[in-house]
Amino acid sequence: MSSIFGADNSESTKGRIGIAINRREKQILPMEDRAVFQTKGSLLGVGRINNYVSIPFFNILILYCLSFFFGGNKILIRVYHAAVVTLALLAAGCNEELPKGDPANSVSQGRFGLKVAGNVAIDADLQPRFMQFLVSGYQGVPAKTAKRVDIIPEMKSCNFIPPEAGAKIVFITAHETDNNDRDSGSNIHTFSEADIKNAAETFIKDWREIGREPRVSIGPYRSGLGVSNIVITETEAPVHLVLGSRSKVIYNLVVAPDARVSAISLIAADDSGLANVPKGAQISYIGPGLARSCNAIPHVRPTPHWQISRLAQRETNSREALNNLTALYSRFDTYFRNNFNQASEKHFISGERITHFLIGPPPSDLSKRVPFKSIAESTVLITRPENIITGNREDFRKALAEKVRPVAERMASGSLASLNRK
Hints:
It is built from 7 helices and 24 strands. The chain is of the alpha/beta class and 422 residues long.
């Protein structure tokens, strides 16, 4: 699959703020400044939902009158109930604020692929769309606490569950999400014994520098699992998801009622999880150690438009790094072909920083959006971490501090008080 990211001076990309996106000859089209913009029947636009109420209202009114004259009381009551339900659903969306502007303005080129900011989803053709036009009741990415957390058992071999016959295998991977820098999108934090040791060393160093007991620092450490929403509207075939996490993330599945997920194959290079998994979907997962030994760490083919590709033209270190990435991709693609009988790039979405993904066509109008479910409405299935805590970043710091102090005491030969400045 060919892809073009980066500056282009052609007529089709004027005003694109330095980025052109083209896959299989499909362009991201500029948004017009009006309430609703449509291309090829796909709703992409901006504004409010108020205008969508008037047509259904008059249709219901006419039907109500006809049923009164020709249908008798029983039909009248049924139409009345249908009218109440329909208008209630419409009223719920009347005041929903929808984003304005062009979602492509949230897309930029990063060192290792696309970076997509905010509430913008990307599909396999790299078309950006606001999440609010794909799902109803979207809640954004403020931190949510899962109803329950369960552990996913890890596989003992490199071989995933074979795909169901006729399933559409879709590979999704990103280096990170847009919401796991500080307070995570999930309020779930994990940390390892190595993290505790490093924090203890920093704790002792800080104590020596200030001469008194310091506050346990977590610095820039990314403990929280971000949340990545995958909207699935594909109905022509069951979807087999292959999710390759490169950072701590929970994949929240937002599945249309008539779509089906047959299986989920999770390759976790770091602590990862799944939320709102549909009934009947088979889950299998391999963790960092097994992924490394199986050459299953997710990688995609570098493109000439990645920043590192451009740097490689003039920097030896970048050239060596690019060659290494190409070799890693080749090994992973071989693993993928052996497990799923197709190239990793046949159906895939990847980037450096992407939070929201769309698999399948976008809704043709607002009434056909997929109902959104957050992780708060789900049991989160998570790979087995060494330590886990639910709460905000300060709760994580306190939990880490309880683990750090005894380790620091052993490092200081049991006498942290000796570090006090006299």
